[in-house]
Structure formats: C-alpha cells, structure tokens
Design a protein that fits this description.
Number of strands: 5
Distance between the termini: 30 Å
Order of helices and strands: HHHEEEEEHH
Shape: globular
Number of helices: 5
Radius of gyration: 16 Å
Structural class: alpha+beta
Oligomer: single chain
Strand order of the largest sheet: 1-5-4
Number of domains: 1
Helix content: 40-55%
Length: 176
C-alpha cells in the first residue's frame, strides 16, 4: 500500500514510486566480506573518533558500490547533527551534479544531547543514504522515494551486514 503522499504525485512520479516499491530486497554483492569494515565503524563511534568513523564508512561504501558496479560516492562524517523545529537530520544524500561526485553526509552526535549515535542507528542511517544512491545508479530510477520497497531494501541490506558482523564475532553488537 503506497504511503499517503503517493496520491499527490504526478502520474510520472507515481510510476517511479511503483518501480521503487516493487524492489523489495537488496543483498550484499557476492564475494564481499565486510565484517571488518563494519567493526571499524563501531570502533570509530565507540572511541568517539570522527576521522576513524569517516574512513571506516568510506571503506564500507567503497566496497559496496564496487560490488554493485555503480559510481563511487563520497562519505563525510561530521560531529553534531543539525536540528530545527522539524527535528534532527540523521543523514543526507546529495546526488552527482555537474561533475561532482555524489555525497553522503552523516552526523555522529545527536543535536540535543550531543551523544554519540548508537552503532546500529548510525549504520542504518549510512545504508539508508547508500540506498538513495543505488536507486539512481543501480536501479536507474529518475527519483528516489521513501517507499515500502525502499525501506525493505534498507532493512535487508542492514540485516545482511549485521549478520556478517555477528558471524565473525558472536555476542552483543555495538552500543545499540
């Protein structure tokens, strides 16, 4: 069932929405072992080291986009999330534009309490933004919408990544 905003979309945008909604799964590209990169993200957050978290995120994203055979995307990790009357921004995807590489921006601290974001929340946010990139580059969608299919793709990929991490080091994962 489409989300409420679907009815406000033009017929052309509704077609894009339906294409996105029809794609329900997204696995890890074959042959990729990503537990080390994922653990490095957790370490960067645990140590509250922005540069380490950024490098680890970039390494994970580089491996994924290479595995999916799509153009590279730059990852920036900044310290504190911006916030306004509408809430906190968790992540931002900016598509390639006029020769500039696509960019994902994440924040490692919450806006209000200035606490380091929980590992699983941070990883899910990173993969959410990667999914926007893949909508354009892998699935050739003209726009990227938050559809039920989009959230299913995000969830299956996050689950697969956490599964690799758990298989390497059984026990509690990260800080939440």
């Amino acid at each position: 069932m489409p989300f409420a905003y679907y009815d406000k979309l033009s017929p052309a945008r509704q077609r894009i929405y339906r294409k996105s909604d029809a794609i329900a799964t997204l696995g890890i590209p074959p042959g990729l072992a990503l537990a080390g990169a994922i653990a490095a993200i957790a370490d960067g957050l645990r140590n509250e080291h922005r540069a380490s978290a950024q490098t680890a995120c970039q390494n994970l994203v580089d491996a994924l986009v290479e595995g999916y055979h799509v153009p590279a995307v730059r990852v920036k990790v900044l310290l504190r999330r911006p916030a306004d009357d509408y809430g906190e921004l968790h992540g931002l995807y900016e598509p390639e534009e006029e020769g500039t590489r696509a960019c994902i921006t994440l924040w490692m601290r919450t806006a209000q309490k200035k606490q380091v974001v929980a590992f699983k929340t941070f990883l899910r946010t990173l993969i959410h933004e990667v999914c926007h990139h893949l909508d354009y580059e892998l699935f050739a969608l003209e726009e990227t919408f938050h559809t039920e299919g989009f959230y299913k793709r995000e969830s299956t990929l996050v689950g697969a990544l956490l599964g690799q991490l758990a298989a390497q080091a059984p026990g509690p994962i990260g800080n939440g």
